[in-house]
Amino acid sequence: MLDHALLEDLVAQVRLAPSVHNIQPTRWRRDGSDLLVLEDMARRLPMADPANHDVRLSHGAAIEGLALALAGRGLCIAEVVALDGQSETTRMRPVARLSIAVGASPDPLANAVAARASWRGAFRRTDADSRQALAHLAASNGDLLIVDAPEAVAAIAVLGDQAGLHFLREEAHRRELLHWMRLSPAHPDYLRDGLNAEALALGRLEAIGAGLVLGSRFPLLDRLGLAGPLTSERGKTGSGAIALFCRPAGEDALDTGRAFYRAWLAIAAAGLAACPLSVLADWPESRRALEETHALPAGRRLVNVFRLGLPARAQVAARARLPVGELIV
Ligand SMILES: Cc1cc2nc3c(=O)[nH]c(=O)nc-3n(C[C@H](O)[C@H](O)[C@H](O)COP(=O)(O)O)c2cc1C
């Protein structure tokens, strides 16, 4: 059912799924009539993601990307069997075995796959259009709790800066982030993976500045009280709305990742642009503050936070991705 040519076509679509820091940790292999999902363990984030939660969530997003790609071809994932703990080689770790079956109807969210991309710029001032899009989104996805009252968004923007600074103050964390940033088009991986200047919505000078601020001068800048203002995203975050992404407590991150991708595609399908602000959910203080202020549905935990809205300018959709041939192993 799944020959190599079909798998290549599917993976070309699947690789558009989001992954944390764009590390693209998911690999694919045909195994009889099944498909193996593998993790490239060289692509991990020990500082930003010590529990490997966001990497696993990224695998989940890739699996959902596969389900969407299969649906367009009348196929579906019949079963997902998690394969944790079985290390195949020192580099590739099996994550799940998928059995593929015939039978699926096209999924409307598949239409948003090509258009969805992280938007890290500012948003248009909230107007009737964005309010309508947000209302449509709230009605179409039950995992997103929309916050659009200006004072509440402003408070979350301040909290986001505090959470961001908390992590940036750890040198190893900053070093890992810089390792995945491609601030110059001359970087050999600029179009392959990680976070390039265009994706970060940084102009040339801003990109040079980001490298200087996050490098060895950070502690001095912090002592001078400049690190906070220089890394602040408050203006951008405060310019849009917020969506709290909540999922059942105790859920396997593979399932969470599938829902995360669907939520982001629903955002794109509503005509909105978005970007996660993971630090808000990762830092216990900000997570607690958000959970106390905003009533999450019973039994749900805050997994991530999106800032979202109508982008202030046209979105660039040129996304850095690894070639299909490297993702099939
Ligand atoms: C679990 C997860 C967490 C993420 N957290 C952040 C984040 O905190 N900040 C951010 O700018 N992007 C975040 N992203 C977005 C990724 O960086 C983005 O998906 C990746 O760079 C690929 O780019 P694309 O979304 O434009 O396709 C996250 C993505 C995932 C899957």
Structural class: alpha+beta
What is the spatial order of strands in the main beta sheet? 1-2-4-3
> Residue share in helices?
40-55%
Radius of gyration: 20 Å
Low-pLDDT regions: none
Given the structure, what is the number of helices?
A: 13
In percent, how much strand structure appears in the residues?
Answer: 15-25%
The coarse overall form would be: globular
From the N-terminal CA to the C-terminal CA, the straight-line distance is 18 Å
Under CATH, the homologous superfamily of the domain at 4-113 and 321-327 reads: NADH Oxidase
CATH class of the domain at 4-113 and 321-327: Alpha Beta
SSE order = HEEHEEHEHHEEHHHHEHEHHEH
The main pleated sheet reads as:
4 strands, antiparallel
Q: What's the CATH architecture of the domain at 4-113 and 321-327? A: 3-Layer(aba) Sandwich
**Overall mean pLDDT score?**
95
Q: How many beta-strand runs?
A: 10
Give the cofactors and ligands: flavin mononucleotide
Q: What is the fold named in CATH at topology level of the domain at 4-113 and 321-327?
A: NADH Oxidase
